[in-house]
């Protein structure tokens, strides 16, 4: 969370919005940032910027923090920092063009707050989010769909939607596995979803 009492509250890094998706977009962008083949993922020691602070003040002392710990404790500051390395244009292109998140607005949502923290101008649909999260299963994105083929009682093809369904390799399979494991850590103490893991899992 962002501490709105900080001087950053009036800057474009994070804007309050009624259409926030919260942590879902952060997970997608972190997945893109773990892809070692993405040119945006270069370590840079020459850049320093003042960042917003986390709500509880933890993690803002300049100490090194693992992405593993930051994600499971929902530290937005680390997510913004990682998003800045990938870049707003790259994040937007990936979410809009590769993951078909068409509700993202190219005029208002090409920035870190909408893309990393989820404060888009219109938000995303549940179907878009479910489709986007599917990349953490082997890195493949399949166009969200409710059905592929419908047959009548005689076994004849009545409706065919399969031509509209496409699958692409959105991120490297290894990056997908890493993100899958990182996401599962929110269920472990001191994760933000500690104690909420479904019993069927």
From TrEMBL:
<keyword id="KW-0808">Transferase</keyword>
<dbReference type="GO" id="GO:0008955">
    <property type="term" value="F:peptidoglycan glycosyltransferase activity"/>
</dbReference>
<dbReference type="InterPro" id="IPR012338">
    <property type="entry name" value="Beta-lactam/transpept-like"/>
</dbReference>
<dbReference type="InterPro" id="IPR050396">
    <property type="entry name" value="Glycosyltr_51/Transpeptidase"/>
</dbReference>
<dbReference type="GO" id="GO:0030288">
    <property type="term" value="C:outer membrane-bounded periplasmic space"/>
</dbReference>
<dbReference type="GO" id="GO:0009252">
    <property type="term" value="P:peptidoglycan biosynthetic process"/>
</dbReference>
<feature type="domain" description="Penicillin-binding protein transpeptidase">
    <location>
        <begin position="41"/>
        <end position="195"/>
    </location>
</feature>
<dbReference type="Pfam" id="PF00905">
    <property type="entry name" value="Transpeptidase"/>
</dbReference>
<keyword id="KW-0328">Glycosyltransferase</keyword>
<dbReference type="GO" id="GO:0008658">
    <property type="term" value="F:penicillin binding"/>
</dbReference>
<protein>
    <submittedName>
        <fullName>Penicillin-binding protein, 1A family</fullName>
    </submittedName>
</protein>
<dbReference type="InterPro" id="IPR001460">
    <property type="entry name" value="PCN-bd_Tpept"/>
</dbReference>
């Amino acid at each position: 969370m962002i501490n709105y009492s900080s001087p950053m509250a009036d800057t474009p890094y994070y804007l309050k919005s009624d259409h926030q998706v919260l942590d879902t977009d952060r997970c997608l962008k972190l997945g893109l940032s773990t892809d070692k083949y993405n040119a945006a993922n270069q370590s840079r020691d020459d850049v320093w910027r003042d960042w917003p602070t986390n709500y509880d003040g933890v993690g803002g002392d300049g100490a090194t923090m693992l992405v593993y710990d930051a994600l499971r404790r929902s530290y937005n500051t680390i997510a913004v920092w990682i998003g800045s390395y990938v870049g707003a244009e790259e994040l937007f292109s990936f979410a809009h063009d590769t993951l078909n998140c068409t509700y993202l607005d190219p005029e208002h949502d090409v920035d870190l707050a909408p893309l990393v923290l989820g404060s888009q101008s219109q938000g995303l649909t549940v179907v878009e989010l479910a489709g986007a999260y599917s990349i953490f299963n082997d890195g493949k994105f399949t166009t969200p769909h409710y059905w592929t083929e419908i047959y009548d009682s005689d076994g004849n093809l009545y409706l065919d939607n399969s031509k509209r369904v496409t699958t692409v390799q959105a991120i490297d399979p290894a990056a997908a596995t890493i993100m899958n494991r990182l996401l599962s850590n929110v269920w472990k103490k001191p994760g933000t979803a500690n104690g909420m893991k479904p019993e069927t899992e």
